[in-house]
Structure formats: structure tokens, C-alpha cells
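Job type: complex structure
Entries:
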Amino acid sequence: MDRDFFGFRSEVVARSLLGHLLCRETKEGLVSGIIIETEAYLSSNDSASHTSRGITKRNATMFGPPGRAYVYFVYGNYYCLNVVTGPEGSGEAVLIRAVEPLSGLDLMYQNRGYIKKTTDLTSGPGKLCLAFAIDHKLDGHDLRKKPLYLVEQSISDRLEVITTPRIGISSAKEKKLRFIIRGNKYLSRRESLD
DNA sequence: GTTAAGATCTGCT
DNA sequence: GCAGATCTTAACG
């Protein structure tokens, strides 16, 4: 995936990331999945974004060059993976909320502990970081390079995409900045009626 | 130094 | 459907 892909506003990149592949290589092997759910966090006028109050130690990666990974720790237990977007310095990103498992299923089960259903492997931002062995050490990593990278799929522009409000936030609830592939089994939540 | 809230997940009802 | 676990971050005194 080339550099120009990430330089657009996060609302645009969030949509265009759907259908492409997220790949992770570790010494145990290769894991990959199809991106099916994303959320955009804007550079300005978005009180739900980590960057709404300026640059801090945690969110510094979001103000860096696009195409990097912004990985942060939430709720004392889990990591979330974002893709930095927009021109450098704008402070925006796209949260990867769910993928559809494609390869390396055995390794995902191993990374997640004893999970029974395939639909529980990567159907949420914290879950997919566990399954893909993503943690704070990958914060700032360039997503065009191993061991964590994106691969373009030609099917991406023919998907049926719908938008909903973002999940788990208390401000800017009205903004429909969550992008999902309609009807996919691996979404973090069922589609709401709107 | 202290404190409250948080881009979540799991297990139980 | 709901509460608890768990701990970092950032705001405030």
C-alpha cells in the first residue's frame, strides 16, 4: 500500500481501508485478516478524539507522519490499533475495530487463550490486538513494512458500506464516523436500525 | 500528589 | 442486558 493512501482526511481513509488486509508476522508465524470495521477520529472539532486537547505524551504519534500505527492502552487491560492519517501534524487517525480472520487461525486462537468461536477472535479493537500480538512496542511503526503491514485488495471499492455512530464514547455521539461492511459476521456489534 | 474517567472484554443473570 | 476487573492518562490542587 503506497504512501498516498494515508494522506487524506480520516473520514475518507476509514472508508477506503475496508476490505483491505491487515498482516502481522511474528516468529510463530503469519496472521492476517480483512478489515471490516473502522472509526474515524478527526483533527479538529471532535471532542471524542484523543487529540482534541492538543499534543500529549500518549497521542504524539497521531501528530506524526501518516501511515504509522498509533497503539494505545485502554481500560487497564487492552490495546487499540489506529492508522495515522491526514497531513503530518494534523493529529487524526482511524481506529481499526474489527477484522475477519483470514489466515493463521491457529495462532490467533493461541494468542487469545481459550476462545471457542471464530467470531470472538477479532471482533473488537482489544480482541484483534491480542490475536495479532499488537502492543505498545508497535506504536509509531510504519504500516508499509514488516512485521505489521497492510495489503491492498481490489475488491475494496465494491463493498456495501454503512455508517453508524462510534462505539464506547461519551461525547460527539451524533457523528456517524463508524464504517462497517454490511452484514459481516465478525463485526464488534450488530448493525443498529438507522 | 491525588483522583476520576476511559475509543473494552468477559462472565454471569 | 449489566456489572466488575484493571491501570494508564490527564486534569486539578
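Summary: Residues 53, 56-58, 72-77 of chain A lie near DNA strand C (CB under 10 Å from a C1'). The longest strand of chain A covers residues 29-41.
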